[in-house]
Design goal:
The protein has 563 residues and is an alpha+beta fold. It is built from nine helices and 25 strands. Helix 1 runs antiparallel to helix 4 and helix 7 crosses helix 9. Pfam families: 4HBT, START.
């Protein structure tokens, strides 16, 4: 087990006595010659080590020479200082006919304190080279996977499906937004040439893939610097896609430009092309890298917006938004081990008080967090996100001209939510436990054409304020009931923590905040909003505002005892 900062541990050995036969380990101590100007390990050098380790793992499985086809899903969580030890583990996750996916885990070790922590992970695809007989060895054999490796074994196919959705999201992403004081994208353009020499070759006498990736990371960093006028930190790499080989004597032309800048991050597109003598340029590789700029407290700074170039620049701008959405899906859907402990808990009258208390407490805790990031705003409806402990939370905030108590009663009855929320297709009361707790079954439509919808069994706990300093609360979470098992018509979804806080700001003005701790069952409905591809949240909560305005008079006519 690896001890993380803060005392947490991660396991890198699944089972005593078991070792994946394709597993390869590499350990390197970081010397000054490996470091950048900040005294931290250069990402380019780390990519070289990762590529070498992954290649050895692929060749151990294939029994022949392998070449790098792509390296994907690299997420850098920490930097590595001089004097630290880098430990890299690579193993084949799944093999296909002539290609295989290799999972790579990088950890850092402090030799003086005996601590270790995760730095990044990545997935590389390798292709087996032809044998002397001119045939590709049949690689379509089962990897020796234990039960704990099955999630790794299945994910590569899902990742391929997710990658193919880029075109759909580009078509639905709308026009480029115009910002004042935006930086012209042309200012960030970088072009550099490298001559491939013998030290840059691998054991197959072609240009080392890790070296190409290092050169690409270098020009991408320069492009990011030109946007922010500061030293950026590389956070993730979407894909290094090798489209053709390069050889000794090639001139590699490396080009980079900032495709889009979001509030706290930017995407840089980079490509490598090769030529010899008077030959036309050959496309060798392309990648998309996400950078942040950190302040003195190691928090992400707000970045200037980008003004894209006409035609191709606008296309790259839109594609960057689409990739942001796909990254979100990969991070919080594909990477989730959905076969582990379920989020829902059993409900029965004996534990009602306990579950109700925990339901409300979880919502109160989410309401106290103060490090929310404003993602988008439209007509005073604000969408915030918060990433913490590998969980994504979001909240929507708005004001309405409806008294707080009337707002509370209108939103408390989930059966009426379908009047303003298109995601609520059906809603029925299962059990009315008491005045404060109700169990509902909610059915939602499919987010994909022809797919099955989802249904949820929700415990809704509502609380009135104890005094004027407290809000009204409507807390939601999933529970299980033996009388309502999953059915073939719907996929059972789960809600970990969601609900409304309703604050009375005056006798006629109320602030409403909706919270949700996103789960794999919920995220598909809101990921396009969080990625900036749509403003569905605005439409839903504008409809909510109209619903409250239209129905406030009907509640006002009722006596207080009826509310």
């Amino acid at each position: 087990a690896l001890t993380l900062r803060g005392g947490n541990k991660i396991s890198i050995q699944h089972e005593e006595g078991y070792r994946n036969p394709t597993e390869v380990k590499m350990s390197q101590i970081v010397l000054p010659c490996h470091a950048n100007h900040c005294g931290e390990l250069s990402v380019g050098q780390l990519l070289k080590w990762m590529d070498s380790t992954a290649c050895l793992s692929a060749e151990r499985h294939a029994g022949c020479s392998c070449i790098t086809a792509s390296v994907d899903d690299i997420h850098f969580e920490h930097t590595i200082g001089v004097g630290k030890v880098v430990n890299i583990i690579a193993k084949v996750n799944r093999a296909f006919t002539s290609s295989m996916e290799v999972g790579i885990l990088v950890t850092c070790e402090d030799l003086y304190t005996d601590r270790q922590w995760k730095v990044c992970h990545a997935f590389a695809t390798f292709v087996a080279r032809r044998t002397e007989a001119g045939k590709v060895r049949d690689n379509n054999q089962n990897i020796d996977t234990k039960p704990f490796d099955q999630n790794r074994f299945n994910i590569p196919c899902v990742r391929l499906l997710c990658t193919g959705t880029l075109h759909f999201f580009v078509l639905s992403s709308g026009e480029c937004q115009e910002y004042q004081d935006a930086v012209p994208a042309e200012r960030t353009r970088v072009e550099s040439v490298e001559l491939v020499l013998p030290p840059h070759a691998n054991h197959q006498v072609s240009t080392f893939g890790g070296q190409i990736m290092a050169w690409m990371e270098n020009v991408a960093t320069i492009a990011a610097c030109r946007l922010c006028n500061a030293h950026p930190t590389l956070r993730s790499i979407d894909m290094f896609h090798f489209r053709g080989p390069s050889h000794i004597g090639d001139r590699l032309v490396l080009k980079a430009i900032v495709n889009n800048a979001f509030k706290h991050s930017m995407e840089v597109g980079v490509c490598a092309e090769a030529y010899q003598g008077g030959e036309p340029l050959r496309h060798i590789n392309s990648a998309f890298m996400t950078f942040e700029v950190l302040d003195s407290d190691r928090k992400a700074r707000t970045l200037p917006r980008i003004r894209p170039e006409p035609v191709d620049g606008k296309r790259r701008y839109q594609e960057a938004i689409a990739r942001k959405k796909i990254r979100l899906d990969r991070k919080y859907i594909i990477s989730c081990k959905q076969t582990e402990v379920p989020l829902s808990v059993p409900w029965d009258p004996s534990n009602q008080m306990y579950l109700s208390y925990n339901n409300v407490s979880a919502l109160k805790l989410m309401d106290t967090r103060n490090n929310w990031v404003l993602t988008s705003e439209k007509n005073k409806v604000r969408l915030y996100t918060l990433e913490e402990n590998h969980m994504l939370c979001f909240k929507v905030e708005m004001h309405v001209s409806v008294p707080a108590e009337q707002t509370f009663h209108l939103l408390s009855d989930l059966r009426r939510r379908k009047e303003w929320d298109q995601h609520y297709e059906e809603c029925e009361v299962i059990i009315q436990a008491d005045e404060e707790d109700t169990l509902y079954r909610v059915a939602t439509p499919s987010v994909s054409k022809g797919g099955k919808g989802k249904d949820f069994i929700l415990l809704a706990s509502r609380r009135k304020p104890c005094d004027a300093r407290d809000p009204y609360l409507i807390a939601l979470r999933s529970v299980t009931l033996p009388t309502h098992p999953p059915t073939e018509d719907y996929t059972r979804g789960e809600v970990l923590c969601a609900g409304f806080t309703i604050w009375e700001e005056s006798s006629i003005v109320t602030k409403i905040t909706y919270y949700n701790q996103a789960t794999p069952g919920v995220l598909p409905y809101i990921s396009t909003d969080i990625a900036g591809l749509s403003s569905g949240f605005y439409s839903a909560f504008s409809a909510c505002s109209h619903f409250l305005e239209a129905n406030k008079d009907s509640l006002a006519a009722l006596p207080p005892s009826a509310l």
